Amino acid sequence: MQTTLKTPVTFDGFGLHSGRKARMVVRPAVAEHGIWFKRVDIEVGDTLVPARWDAAERTPLCTRIVNRAGVSVSTIEHVMAGLAGCGIHNALIEIDGPEVPILDGSAAPFVKAFLERGLRSLNAPVRAIEVTRTVSVETPNGWARLEPARTPSMEFHIDFEDAAIGAQTKSLTLTNGAFVRELCDSRTFCRLSDVEAMQAQGLALGGTYENAVVVDGDRVLSPGGLRHADEAVRHKMLDALGDLALAGAPILGHYTGVRAGHSMTNMLLEALFTTDGAYRMGMCDPVTRSYLPGAGVALAEMPAVA
Ligand SMILES: [Zn+2]
């Protein structure tokens, strides 16, 4: 069945790019509601923003959604990954600012709070998007692909000059709580050489060594070092799951990303939804349901760092 949270959960923190403080309350919602954001700091006009691929702007550094009135919410990808990874299908996310708090740079604080509060089953069956034909997108930087598969799975490859990141590849079947065990605690990362450039453009203003892993050559500058030797590629998979969640339902298919990012995942969803015969939306039978990312998640399996 579809799920929502049992009770509202509040998060307070600063936006990674805007540096602005925000309070975000993730509230339970009824079946078929989906995931919506609501800007509670704006008093007039349409303040509801759908967490859907066709409301996303193609920005390189984060995922930003905008409604028809121009009201936006930025950096939604980690909370979206937390919801998708825990199998939460319906929520209303109230926020009093333009950007989701970055917290520790991963999805772990969201996942921990969601699993501690617990989920509630709703009286409506889960639908999933079954990939029925391979779609792919390519840019000069990399490529991304979705292909048919019985279980949701993912494969990612990155390649950075800095030796502290280097080349990393990871494959994962997103069943039996794998997201919670393997991906949710991996943090945003960036190169020291990019930080100044971003800040000159008015980005990463809320970035610190505590909410992002900063690397310089072969050195990890953030205190405490890495949570996983391949934390960077794990975080890219977390981002991809959060961005794919803008499809509006779990995707049954195999995702491959090679140096892919937020814009490319969005282009991939557009290709999926606009290519003839590329997908089928269907009710999940119990076997399929047991493959979805939310099945089998357990708070006890969260990595200790959270
Ligand atoms: Zn991220």
From TrEMBL:
Keyword Zinc: yes
Binding site for Zn(2+): H78, H235, D239
Chemical reaction(s) catalysed: a UDP-3-O-[(3R)-3-hydroxyacyl]-N-acetyl-alpha-D-glucosamine + H2O = a UDP-3-O-[(3R)-3-hydroxyacyl]-alpha-D-glucosamine + acetate
Entry annotated with the keyword Membrane: no
MF (Gene Ontology): metal ion binding; UDP-3-O-acyl-N-acetylglucosamine deacetylase activity
UniProt KW keywords: Hydrolase, Lipid A biosynthesis, Lipid biosynthesis, Lipid metabolism, Metal-binding, Zinc
Pathway: Glycolipid biosynthesis; lipid IV(A) biosynthesis; lipid IV(A) from (3R)-3-hydroxytetradecanoyl-[acyl-carrier-protein] and UDP-N-acetyl-alpha-D-glucosamine: step 2/6
Documented EC number(s): 3.5.1.108
Entries under InterPro entries matching the protein: Ribosomal_Su5_D2-typ_SF (IPR020568), UDP-acyl_GlcNac_deAcase (IPR004463), UDP-acyl_GlcNac_deAcase_C (IPR011334), UDP-acyl_N-AcGlcN_deAcase_N (IPR015870)
GO CC annotation, single: membrane
Top enzyme category: hydrolase
Gene3D superfamilies per record: lpxc deacetylase, domain 1, lpxc deacetylase, domain 2
UniProt cofactor(s): Zn(2+)
Entry annotation: catalytic residues: H262
GO BP field: lipid A biosynthetic process
Highest taxon listed in the record's lineage: Bacteria
Role according to the record: Catalyzes the hydrolysis of UDP-3-O-myristoyl-N-acetylglucosamine to form UDP-3-O-myristoylglucosamine and acetate, the committed step in lipid A biosynthesis.
Protein family (similarity comment): Belongs to the LpxC family.
Protein's UniProt name: UDP-3-O-acyl-N-acetylglucosamine deacetylase
Organism: Roseivivax lentus
Gene: lpxC
